[in-house]
Amino acid sequence: MNPLAFFDALLLARQLTELVQGFSRFEIHLLSYAACLLWLYDGKPYSEWEYEFISSAAGLPYSADIETVLDEAESLGFIEQRDHLLILSPAGQVELDLQQSFQSNQLRQRYICGAADALLVLTPGSIREAVEYDPSLFYLKNRRQSDWLLRAPDRDRLYSNFNELRRLLSSDASDLMIPLITWLKYLLKIGRHDSILTTD
Amino acid sequence: MTASLQQINLDVLQEVITHEPLAVANERFGALGVTALKNILRFFRRLTTVARVSEKSVLTVFAVVDDDLSISDARLRRADKLQLGTAIGEIESLVIELRGDGSAFEWDDVPAEINSSEKVIVYRLLQGVETFHVAALPIVVRKVIENSISQFLFHYFETIKEALCAYRDRMARASTNYALREAWFDENRLWFRSSPEFILRRSLCEFLRAFLRYDDLWLRPEQNVDESHPVDIKIMWKGDNREAIIEIKWIGRSRTKNRQTANHGEARARTGAKQLAEYLEAHYQESSSADARGYLVVFDCRRKNLKLTDDMITRANGMYFASREIKYAPAYHEQRHDFEKPIRMFLEPRCI
Hints:
The structure holds 2 protein chains of 2 kinds. Chain A is mostly helical. Chain A has helices at residues 3-20, 25-41, 64-75, 90-100, 103-116, 124-132, 135-142, 154-168, 177-199; strands at 54-55, 61-62, 79-82, 85-88. In chain A, the strands form 2 sheets. Chain A has a two-stranded antiparallel ribbon with strand order 1-2. In chain A, a hairpin with a 2-residue loop joins strand 3 and strand 4. By secondary structure, chain B is α/β, with parallel strands linked by helices. Chain B has helices spanning 2-6, 10-18, 21-29, 31-47, 72-78, 160-172, 178-181, 197-211, 266-285, 315-318, 332-335; strands at residues 51-52, 58-64, 79-81, 89-90, 93-98, 104-107, 120-126, 129-134, 137-140, 192-193, 216-219, 233-237, 242-255, 260-264, 291-300, 343-346. In chain B, strands 3-6-5-2-7-8-9 form a 7-stranded mixed beta sheet. In chain B, strands 10, 11, 12, 13, 14, 15 and 16 form a 7-stranded mixed beta sheet that branches. A two-stranded parallel ribbon of chain B has the order 1-4. Chain B is elongated, with a radius of gyration of 25 Å.
């Protein structure tokens, strides 16, 4: 089990439980991917995120490591079903408190929380729609293919795009929610416009 | 499409940034401004648990960024500490101040000190338009969810049925939904355009996507015109292994400029019910592990005595079918545990 993925999943579970009263598994995959995008935005090497993503059959990011840790968390009672969603259980909160004290997890919190805070502005459905408009995911979904995400040259494209985004956000955004929200809204604007053109 | 996304469009990106309140707050106030604005957003999450907004709601929420802005005296006289506990219902008019320590105060009215102040962040909802004033700079909130009065104050539906009924009442009845408006041939909503099926299911799909929580959602592509295939929208929840199968039918008339292209009555809805029941039965027989539930949605644009030359209609003829429910025989929703009662969405015309 990937300990960093485990921490990411538990922290996201708590954030989503607080912000939107629970989560689905797909939302944890989606937001862990968003957090990884913020990691790249900050100029950090992809290899140091420590787990990878593929595009699923539905054309969305998926991580086998995240899926494994969700299974583990559920079997241990750290996450539990409430109505049609999952929530972080009290036992899960205790485990998360412990995990947050680990030095190895300190750096990632900022990226995970930045991604989760996007839910203050966008719904999971809107975040999902925005990510679907990412060129790589869109390409793979249209061809009904699955492949690794964030590999070169796609990763180089993102680094370049995020350099431009950082430049246009003239003030340093200490809160990573800002570049993420901006990027997702940009994807929505461009993607929806192009979808209308395609339909017409 | 991929070409336009491969090369970043700097003009669009700049426009997004210019209209992003968080980015503006960061630029004007730095981390303090971002914290204040996020406090407002977090307050919205709490507010939605006890209140809702409508087109008539007037809501002001403000947070002072610079403590030098003195409204302490006014607060003592004109504001009370707010306790969010009991349900408020629909907001008519509300003025809330959020302080740095997280406490909230309800004001009698908007304090004059914050108008045009450069030391405060103010959110306003008025006539369905949301704005943030960041240091007196107005920023209109651009709608990501077209179907929602507020981009922040909304509820996620807990069930498909709840979501479909809300779509029927809020979006379909008066064709409030922007996507749905494209289905009409005429301004008075007497006729559909030819083959409106994809517009109807895309409109419903966008609404469900915005306000439902799910693992996966599939929408039948536009080019798939197989009428015998009942699945228009499929929604999946992997956690408890559930699926919702939505079949969409429309009844009424469609046309082009010179001729009527379709005239569907109740029989079409009954055909849809049969198709859906057969699909659910096949699904059940295959012993799929997924727990599937079927929903028949009927868009009803029937008008009485409608002629090709008509571009207006009386209220009596336009609303003739408004309350005429479709009779289903067999009533699959009464016979099958996995077949939800069909939901008819009557789309009202503009009447003279």
